[in-house]
Design a protein that fits this description.
Recombinase domain-containing protein; 0% strand; 58 residues
Length: 58
């Protein structure tokens, strides 16, 4: 089992259009948050997972 903790406040996904993705400050904050979570996850999982994934978010 792979387990790791991300110590940042969760953020809900924002609704964005193709243009709004680049001009909206909220969209930019969300995309940055999403990229940060992805980088942290990749640090814990060097190899691709080949089994089911379960996530608990508190």
């Amino acid at each position: 089992m792979i387990e790791f903790t991300v110590d940042i406040a969760p953020m809900g996904a924002v609704r964005m259009t193709q243009k709004g993705k680049w001009t909206s400050e909220t969209a930019q904050r969300y995309l940055s948050y999403k990229k940060h979570i992805g980088l942290l996850a990749r640090a814990y999982c060097a190899e691709p997972l080949r089994r089911p994934v379960h996530a608990e978010i508190h």
